[in-house]
Design a protein that fits this description.
8 helices, mainly alpha, 203 residues
């Protein structure tokens, strides 16, 4: 009885070790590692976009104090921020090209609205000299740079993951477990969003 139990336990252990070895050899563990890397990189992208969104209310209020009649531009920024912050950021976004494109769209619209706000600000020397405004423009410039870096890291992470999905023999594992390529930022969108709004007022 003891011998039979031991033999059964040995076979179970051997099967588990063999399965683990096969999964590791066919890239299963590699997929897990790279999937987590893309999620971490995406998390940093989202954090930097949120940092930018958090700056906008103070920026709008500061501009409003000097250029309240620029209502259309101020409202456009506020609407774009609302759309960007209301977009639900879920893990599914990383595997849903339509949702990912929507994310790009709302962030692109916010970038455009911010650029127009900064151009309007050029008309007001008192605003440009305001300490609070200059501090906010500096923070915005730094945040835009962080966004660019975070996006580049995410793009590299997704490229690495997608190559693993497509190359042999890990593409066989991808087919078995249903791993698909992840969407990334498009070339056209990269030009639009990664270009920081003009925030240099002749420093």
């Amino acid at each position: 009885m003891t011998s039979t139990l031991f033999s059964r336990w040995t076979r179970t252990l051997a099967t588990a070790l063999l399965a683990g070895s096969l999964l590791s050899g066919c890239g299963y563990n590699e997929f897990q590692t790279k999937d987590e890397a893309t999620k971490a990189a995406w998390g940093e992208v989202v954090n930097q976009y949120q940092r930018r969104a958090d700056l906008i209310p103070n920026l709008v209020n500061t501009v409003k104090g000097y250029a309240s009649h620029e209502r259309e531009t101020l409202e456009a920024v506020t609407r774009a921020r609302a759309a960007a912050t209301s977009f639900q950021i879920t893990p599914e976004v990383l595997n849903d090209p339509a949702a990912f494109n929507k994310f790009q769209q709302v962030q692109g619209e916010l970038s455009g609205a911010l650029s127009r706000l900064m151009m309007v600000s050029e008309k007001y020397p008192d605003l440009k000299a305001d300490t609070s405004f200059r501090d906010l423009q500096s923070q915005l410039e730094g945040t835009e740079n962080r966004i660019t870096v975070a996006r580049q890291r995410y793009i590299a992470s997704v490229q690495d993951y997608n190559v693993t999905v497509r190359k042999f023999p890990t593409n066989l594992t991808a087919m078995v477990f249903g791993y698909e390529t992840k969407p990334s930022f498009t070339v056209e969108n990269e030009k639009a969003i990664s270009t920081a709004p003009t925030v240099d007022f002749g420093k």
